[in-house]
Amino acid sequence: MERQIFADPISGITGTILCGNQVVGDTDLRPDLEALVDNKIFIIDVSVPHKNNSHVFEEARNRKISKYHPLLAHFHLASYSNVEIIIKLVDALGSWDRNNEKFLRKICMDFYLNVLRTLYISDTIRWSQDINIQHLIGAVQHWLFELCSFFGCVTSRKPRRVNIVNCSLFSLFVCSPCVLE
Question: Does residue 119 sit in helix, strand or coil?
């Protein structure tokens, strides 16, 4: 993935996408997105737990933070002293973790926060439903195939793995592919 510059003219936030869904260094870790905003690296990963209580959200967040902790050393060696791991959580039925908003408030205005929250929840529900249907009947849903074809990230009607992180959450950054090999 080439480095892509993004900018929000209203808030004045600018940054660079460093990597998306790619292995970082020699760690074999693949976070959903890495962004450089105001000389700070954000390692962003999304998790969709199947239960919707705060205990499950906290457990999932801690598990992901410990998983991506080796990346902090990787970026410190690359002369980035300010690195933060951001974990986004929405359960498969659309429960929103309020901790998601801390990072979003740093990079967008409240209006965009409300729009992103709505898109994030509705897309997570839709993707979860379609993944379950795909699992049950073995066929990719029509709208999913069309969306993936639009982004050029699918070559057959039976992708092996579907990444439910689509453009909603990272619309301020970059549209990431929705189907990975």
Answer: helix
Cβ neighbourhood burial of 19 (10 Å; 0-12, 13-18, 19+): middle
**Contact assessment for residue 41 and residue 34, using Cβ atoms and an 8 Å cutoff:** yes
DSSP state of 137: H
- The identity of residue 79, as a single letter, is S
Lookup result for tokens 């410990």: 66
Of 175, 164, 162, 179, nearest to 91 by C-alpha is 164
- Altogether, the residues listed in the chain come to a count of 181
Highest mean pLDDT: which range of 34-38, 85-89, 94-98, 130-134: 85-89
- Can you tell me the distance from the alpha carbon of 173 to that of 107, in angstroms, rounded to the nearest whole number? 10
Q: What is the mean pLDDT of residues 123-132?
A: 82
DSSP strand pairing (40-47 vs 83-89) = parallel
